[in-house]
Amino acid sequence: MPAVPGPAVPPCRALGAQCTSLPVLLRVAVLDEGARSGDHEATWLFGHTERITFGALWRDGNELYADAVLHVACKYLQEDGDGQARCEAHGFHGPLPLRRPEISEPRRQEADRFRIVEAGRMVTRHLPPPVRPTRELPVHAGTNPCVGAPCRTADNRRGAACCRDLQIEIMCTPKQRRLEALVRARKSPYLCKVDRESPFSLGAEMISACEFLADDGVHCALHGRRRADGRPAKPDLCSLWPEGEDTMHPGCVFARTGDGESR
């Protein structure tokens, strides 16, 4: 569905919490094949905690939803220093609004324990590392083709760009004009490319790094680990390398070269 422009300026009456963050309802997954069919997609989404605080998962029919807070400021907010701020859209001026707390809920814990989604619920599971052959042949440059790639997200942060941004679906009808205006007014590129996906929701892109990234900031801490039922712990969409015609991050190793071939 084509983008439908929302109100240019949110109808705010004063500086407030909406200036620094925004509570929303996210559609997490559609359970087309049973209660566990959304586990990978939900685990992937709930991993991106850098600028998103997730609430509890809940189910309505065959869909999973979650309340969330998007910690992205409004583009009209200007901090003047000394704890003061002003709104460039309405001219409000006063103390910088208090920020909603960014509640920490680590996805990686000690002793190979991880917070993942199973049957529509967040659970803590012990996921041992994969067993490596005792006489394994060395693999040149490792098994991750993204190591050393100069890819970057829209804020010019380099490395593992596809693990640092994501697409979200925000539940918002056309009648929720204030909410839509607040979503569209978030600071780019941290929340941008807002489109009306359906009569019930908006699609948007966010920069919010995945907490399953290993300490080197490139490898995935879930890679090779398996759930108790044998399924991979790593979200399946993270294991599908992009096709050559897909939109790529600048510097992606899979981007097409000058001769039209993918790397």
Description:
- This protein is mainly beta.
- The protein has one domain.
- The chain contains two helices and twelve strands.
- Strands 1-3-2 form a three-stranded antiparallel sheet, covered by helices on one side. Strands 4-5-6 form a three-stranded antiparallel sheet, with no helix packed on it. It has a three-stranded antiparallel sheet with strand order 7-8-9.
- The longest helix has 9 residues, at 39-47.
- It is globular and about 70 Å long.
Tell me the number of helical segments per DSSP (H or I, 4 or more residues long): 2
Give the helices and strands as they follow along the chain.
Answer: EHEEEEEEEEEHEE
- Helix content class: under 10%
What is the percentage of strand-forming residues?
25-35%
Output mean pLDDT: 88
Record field, number of beta strands: 12
Describe the global form: globular
